Amino acid sequence: MTKLLLSVHVLVAILAVGSITVAASMFPRYALQACGDKEQDGRSAGIAALLHRICRGYALAGLAVPVFGIATGAQLGVLTDAWLIASLALTVIAAAVLALAILPGQQRLLALAQDVPAQEAVHQEAAHQEAAQPTATRLTMLTGIFNVLWTIVVILMIVRPGSTTGA
Question: Which pTM does this prediction carry?
Answer without folding.
Answer: 0.86
